[in-house]
Amino acid sequence: MTGLVACVGGVVHDPAGRLLLVRRAHDPDRGSWSVPGGRVEPGEDDATAVVREVLEETGLHVVAGRVLVPAGAPRYEVVDLVCELVGTAATPVAGDDAEAAAFVDRATLATLRCTPGLVPTLGGWDLLPRC
């Protein structure tokens, strides 16, 4: 995978079934909503990277779970992981590379400008908001 940047994304639902999203503060896709994530740092595995990225972008603690089918994007090799929130009272707060962070339901998701392919990909994995 020479020339590709290793990245991760965290697919996180709250106890109500809402999906955690961040509005990207930087390109690619600045201003679009997506799952929290970012680059894998040297020496990190995907699980460690996604836990760090979710914390940096939302202030939330998660435990990394199963790996989803890797998704490719130009210049990036993205691995998404299903994550579980640590604790039940969780309010995301935008930080690091995020302009905003929120748990969203299906109706709200339908109104957001999301990164290309996000909604169909999550739908294919049956990981859209459950409410």
In a nutshell, what does this entry contain?
With 131 residues, the chain is an alpha+beta fold.
Observed structural traits:
globular, NUDIX_hydrolase_CS, Nucleoside Triphosphate Pyrophosphohydrolase, 5-stranded mixed sheet, Nudix_hydrolase, 3 helices, hydrolase activity, hydrolase, 3-stranded antiparallel sheet
Q: What is the structural class?
A: alpha+beta
Query: Share of helix among residues?
Result: 10-25%
**Arithmetic mean pLDDT:** 88
Task: Give the CATH level 1 class.
Answer: Alpha Beta
Shape: globular
* Share of β-strand residues: 25-35%
Query: Main β-sheet, in a few words?
Result: 5 strands, mixed
The protein's oligomeric status is: single chain
CATH architecture: Alpha-Beta Complex
Give Rg in angstroms.
13 Å
- H/E element order: EEEEHEEEEHH
Number of domains: 1
Number of helices: 3
Could you characterize the architecture of this molecule?
This protein is of the alpha+beta class and 131 residues long. Helix content is 18%, strand content 34%. The chain is built from 3 helices and 8 strands. The protein has helices at 46-58, 106-109, 118-124; strands at residues 5-12, 19-24, 33-34, 37-39, 62-67, 71-73, 76-85, 98-104. Strands 1, 4, 5, 6 and 7 form a 5-stranded mixed sheet that branches. Strands 3-2-8 form a 3-stranded antiparallel sheet. A hairpin with a 2-residue loop joins strand 6 and strand 7. The chain is globular and about 40 Å long. The N and C termini lie far apart (38 Å).
